[in-house]
Amino acid sequence: MSDAAAAAGWRGRFPALQHRDFRILWFGMFFSSATMMFQFYAQGWFILGLTSSAGLLGLLGVSRGAGMLLFSLWGGALADRMDRRTLLMATQTTAFGIYGLLSILVITDRVGLGLAFVLIFLSAAVESMDAPARQALVPHLVPREHLPNAVALFIAAQISSYAFLPPMAGLAIETIGVGGAFAVSLVGHVVVVLALFTLKVRARPVPSAITVLRSVGNGIVYATHRPRVLWILVFGMAVGTLGFPIISTLAPYWMKNELGLGAGGWTLMGWFWGLGTVASTATLSTRNSPRHLGGIIIGATSGFALSLVFFSLTRSLPLAAIAWCLNGTFFSANMIASTSLLQMIVENQYLGRVMSLRGLSSAINQMAAAPLGALADAAGIGRMVPAAATLLAAVVLVPTALSRTVRTLDAEAQHAAESERAPVSA
Question: What mean pLDDT, rounded, does the chain reach?
Fold first, then answer.
């Protein structure tokens, strides 16, 4: 195959990567997400080392979730009012400072449970302002026809590191300690800031005279008056409440007490979960059409719930690894499809605020870890997980059966795409 044919094939499959600023930011986020794995696993293992209770481990989720809940909507409003590139530089620099301090305190053994929760709360607050600005920046980097591909690639950059880095994170924790793992994650923030410095785009929304609080309110009203937007957000909230807390916060408790694994075994299971994310991102990252995105959202959310039920019912490590892999596949498919669809049907002037509402599901999934952990302590985690996952599947499938709006989540995006392709009459 000639070089020209190879280039054409590459551009055809990943057209968003043709655009310079998108390539730069994509690379920065890919590298940052890779190093964030060290941060994610270090948090869970550090807190687990200070307590043996699933309920107290759930407080890690509360500290994360409270920061997201209090600052996510504000961050979305800021993303719709100021230069999104400048906002990202500020959030990434602040996160570097917080995790730098946490690294020093852990290495010198000068941090207890309370102070750790405070610093994790602050880092989550900063990240909740970073996420909507990052997502709202994407439409400024590529033309509309390349947006589904750009969103898929962007999310792939964020979550594909789950496929490669968990074992390295576990090795780092066991060799250089939790503080060393925190320190490794600092490199990612530096790379993102350098990438942002080189961007030529300036994503400055139209100036607004209304207050930030009023702007937040307008974003909520907009989302609640768009039924398809609202349903996508509701399904994300359901995943965040009933499913992902088990994956993100309570997993080390399950791996240690139900499967008998240490830090290395836990992170190795994380590697299987990450392999699943690669399967879905490799498939969906080449999409350039909104067709079937609604069905993917419904199917992937249901699959996420049912694979979690399967995982909770086995104590066989091979079967658990398969279930964990499937769970990662469905989770990333849902994330890519729902984010792509929101990017396509939400007007740009509301995009930051709508994405911050989506970010609330991340806050809820962290906050929900505490009551789910307490329920696990009371009734047994082996009963809690399948019950929560079954309820999640019902939350998705029942509205799908009853509502045509839910069954046609991608109708607006498909109509817009068909209108753009239609010839203009003389």
Answer: 79
For residue 5, tell me if it sits in a domain. no
Q: For residue 139, how many other CB atoms are within 10 A of its CB? A: 18
Q: Residue 112: what pLDDT?
A: 76
pLDDT digits (tens, 9 = 90+) for 34-78: 777 777 778 777 777 777 666 666 677 677 777 777 777 777 777
Count of domains for the chain: 1
More confident residue, 426 or 294: 294
- Whether residue 425 is contained in a domain is answered as no
As to burial, measured by CB atoms within 10 angstroms (0-12 exposed, 13-18 middle, 19+ buried), residue 60 is buried
CA distances 109 to 118, 171, 386, 393, Å, are 16, 20, 38, 43
Cα-Cα end-to-end distance for the chain: 42
pLDDT at 49: 72
Query: Is residue 9 in some structural domain?
Result: no
Query: In this structure, what CATH number is given to the domain that contains residue 63?
Result: 1.20.1250.20
Percent of all residues in the chain with a pLDDT value above 70, rounded to a whole number: 84
Q: What is the pLDDT of residue 3?
A: 47
How many CB atoms neighbour CB 188 within 10 A? Answer: 26
Interaxial angle between packed helices 113-137 and 54-79, expressed in degrees from 0 to 180 and rounded to the nearest 10: 40
Residue 231's domain spans which residues?
16-201+208-417
Q: Which of 47, 352, 29, 280 is nearest to 178 (CA)?
A: 47
Hey, what's the torsion of the CAs at 379, 385, 387, 393, to 10 degrees? Answer: 170
Give me the phi and psi of 81, to 5 degrees please. Answer: -120, -20
pLDDT at 426: 40
Neighbours of 229 (CB within 10 A): 22
Q: Which residues, other chains included, contact 413 with Cβ-Cβ below 8 Å and sequence gap of 6+?
A: 290, 293, 341, 344, 345
Q: Tell me the pLDDT tens digit for each residue of 370-411.
A: 788 888 888 888 888 888 889 988 988 899 998 898 888 888
What pLDDT, on the 0 to 100 scale, is given for residue 424? 44
